[in-house]
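Re: export button greyed out
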Amino acid sequence: MSELRYHAGAAGAASATLTARPYHLDHEPHPENGTALGFWLYLMSDCLIFAALFATYGVLGRSYAAGPTGAQLFDLTLVAINTAFLLLSSITFGFAMLRKQANDVRGTLLWLAVTGFFGLCFLGLELYEFAHLIHQGAGPQRSAFLSAFFTLVGTHGLHVTFGSIWLVVLMVQIGKHGLIHENKRRLMCLSMFWHFLDVVWIGVFTFVYLMGVL
Amino acid sequence: MSAHDTHAHPAGHGDHHGDVGPHSSLRDYTIGFVLSVILTAIPFWLVMAKVISDRNTAVVVLGTFAVVQILVHMVYFLHMNGSIEGGWTLLSTIFTVVFVAIGISGTLWVMFHMNANMMPEHPTPTPPVHDAPGHSRP
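Workaround output, generated via the alternate export path:
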């Protein structure tokens, strides 16, 4: 890089004009917050995974193989409670981010704990639903519809699981080191991840559960 | 080289304002939360109270609610706008949305025709009504 500049400078009149050259930018364009953009790109690639699973479900969602249908299996009250858990966890994560902005370690940890609690409630209810379905003989091997259902909803559940693990690890980090720059960056990434999972869940409860019982 | 040295980067690129990431406010989160609750409650009510009898109408209405709620989450929870990261976030999102839309609609379109053409003897695989979930195992 420096060699290139040297030659460019030699081609010009003197090295003093180096800064005056119009094609040398004083401020090289760099993203203000590279991590946020990079993590966003990861989330968008994750979006493609879910898109593939949604498309698979869209194709196979009515292939019951003479087995139970969505209308027979889905308990919408359960799904509504689960949706409420995830939505509440989204707003409590928002509160944690607000406490982070105020540099309040205790407040941040408290709201993160509440978020984790709702996340675990969501996972518990989802595991109960899965266990109930499998117990009824409506496991993933029963029909193409149920294979697609378990893959799509299970992948979302796995994301919430790993998000929860990340949340606990980050709480330990914040408890140990406080709200240092690195931890703020990690919090920002986790909040994007968490809100993203809520966005995916909107698609799940609309296209899988609500449209499934129509 | 000297020009580069005088323009010293701060330790972290994101640290220009002393904080990382977009600035969020209680107002944003509250508006987002209230809108999400409304946009979640209405579709659940529509389906659970069986308000719309026509299936196609219901699918369109539910899909619209989902899209609006996703936009609400993007704006109020993920703080999406056209200016963060110089517009690259928005651009990558638009690219993904287009990609996902083509992928999903194309898959459904092609596979629908595959089904229609490959299985003439089973045009509409409707499940038998007597098959209760408790006794479904063959």
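Helices of chain B lie at 2-6, 26-48, 55-77, 88-118. The button fix ships in the next patch.
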